[in-house]
């Protein structure tokens, strides 16, 4: 899993909107926003790319995000379950003394 982005989705949308509505070059907008021009160029390309329909069996971006979130949640719950199992075993042992 990659590192979390330091830019919010709202900031990205606003930056792309600024490029699209101002007619200014990406380099200039990126400099004004304090963002790498390559980063901003990638955001613009992604925003302008036609949405391609998912082929059968292929997950959409939203589904991939949800799957990633759910897998993280399952891992957290499994960790919590293991901690509770160990605590229950410890207290059962202590009660038996």
Structural class: mainly alpha
> What does the average pLDDT come to?
89
Give the low-pLDDT segments: none
Strand content: under 5%
Distance between the termini: 46 Å
Q: Percent range for helical residues? A: over 70%
Overview of the structural elements:
This protein is mainly α and 97 residues long. The protein folds into 2 domains: 49 residues, Orthogonal Bundle (Arc Repressor Mutant, subunit A); 43 residues. Helices cover 71% and strands 0% of the residues. The mean pLDDT is 89.
List keywords for this structure.
97 residues, mainly alpha, Arc Repressor Mutant, subunit A, 2 domains, 0% strand
Topology at a glance:
Elements (H helix, E strand, L loop, with lengths): L8 H14 L3 H8 L3 H12 L12 H35 L2
Helix pairs in contact: 1-3, 2-3
In brief, what are we looking at here?
The chain is an all-alpha fold and 97 residues long.
């Amino acid at each position: 899993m990659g590192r979390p982005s330091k830019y919010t989705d709202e900031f990205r949308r606003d930056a792309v909107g600024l490029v699209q509505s101002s007619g200014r070059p990406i380099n200039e907008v990126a400099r004004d926003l304090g963002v790498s021009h390559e980063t901003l160029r990638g955001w613009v390309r992604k925003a302008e790319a036609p949405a391609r329909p998912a082929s059968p069996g292929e997950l959409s971006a939203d589904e991939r995000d949800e799957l990633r979130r759910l897998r993280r949640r399952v891992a957290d719950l499994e960790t919590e379950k293991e901690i509770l199992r160990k605590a229950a075993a410890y207290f059962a042992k202590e009660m038996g003394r």
